[in-house]
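FYI - complex with adenosine-5'-triphosphate, inputs then prediction.
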Amino acid sequence: MTIQGKMTEKEFKLEPDCELRFEVEGKKETVDLKLLSGKAEVFGTELAPDKPYTFFSGAKAAVYTWHGCTLKLTGNTEGTYIAKETPMVMYLNTHACLERLRKHADEGLNRGEDTRGPVTMIVGPGDVGKSTLCRILLNYAVRMGRRPIFVDLDVGQGSIAIPGTIGAILVERAASVGEGFSQEAPLVYNFGHLVPLANLTFYNILVSRMAATVQDKMVGNRKVAASGVIINTCGWVKDEGYKSLTHVAQAFEVDVIIVLDQERLYNELVRDIPFIKIVFLPKSGGVVERTPPMRISARDDRIREYYYGLHTKYHPHSFEVKMSHLTIYKIGAPALPDSCMPADMKVDDHMTKLVPVEPGVKLKHHMLAVSLATEPKDLLTSNVAGFICVLDVDDENKMVKVLSPQPKPLPKTILILTEIQFMDSN
Ligand SMILES: Nc1ncnc2c1ncn2[C@@H]1O[C@H](COP(=O)(O)OP(=O)(O)OP(=O)(O)O)[C@@H](O)[C@H]1O
């Protein structure tokens, strides 16, 4: 491992099977990466020669090479070093196994059988590189001409849409080095909390709903069916979190579970679900641990990106709406003590109860999901068109000012109050 100091412009020669890792320091810094010779990739996306790739503040990246390369970094980076030990060969072998299952599925589909490619779920505690491994496996699949579905069930970060949601996208192109996967036509369900434990009943309902929709998508498209699914999960792996993982496995009829870094979780899963292939993989030494403030700031960045795009390329709209034009519900009511529960009511019922919300100052800074449901009865399981943020509330004039990705008017659908908050400082 070679540690390098701060730099403005520096060349790196990488031997085969090595990785250059760096972080972009400073709030307004950018760093340009160029591949000068050889071949290299960033989390599975191949770099074009001599093309500058820009990384922005907060980026934590690794440039891996199978056969050796020379790279140039321009700008101030932190903790920059070349790692000679990486788990990339194991990750590639895992991809090769998934590819074999896809080929198998292809052959079955050609014979007219009702089959599909591997549904793979990545699990492990926080900060072990689950999202990164999803990206690598998806990129390798696309580079083989596959069209896999990516499902992100990690409500803490919400890489599709915003934190507090679960989402799915069809991956048709390798991720862009700086911006990740293209997010055209994502399927998004609003959960409204940052941890599944906040309303596990509702979380499990949404997971089952997502699984059914993804299943339908595969039935309707043979190429997608053979390519399979890669599912990212939350880093919550103990007690109820563990049960929720087993529910995901059941709902999606998962074929392969990849456990990153935690042997205990691996052994528990092997014991409890012996009929699913469980694979243990080590985490990469490059994965950067995030402190709680870093996570908060990453969530904020995610919502800012939702409205303004990466590096302010979109222009969201802010406008006023009459309170009387808004129909808002909240999902889940506070639990009643057992003694107060009506005899025919189950504990789970209050978790999925729809509670009408009167617009008022308490909505300020909250994100509201614009549901595609027009009737309250469909609210729980409808996906969402997008999100508005309440910028201001004028109680006197009964007006609410909102930030929206779309111009006014708001669609005449129902809004769902979420626990997610955002302060717009742009
Ligand atoms: N090999 C690597 N070298 C440098 N940075 C890396 C490497 N792998 C991952 N990272 C960085 O580490 C950070 C954490 O990785 P990642 O988001 O994949 O972890 P995670 O397990 O999904 O976390 P969480 O459970 O919190 O969602 C990311 O910023 C990612 O870019």
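The helical segments are 88-110, 130-143, 200-219, 222-227, 240-251, 263-272, 292-308, 347-351. The CA atoms of residues 138 and 148 lie 7 Å apart.
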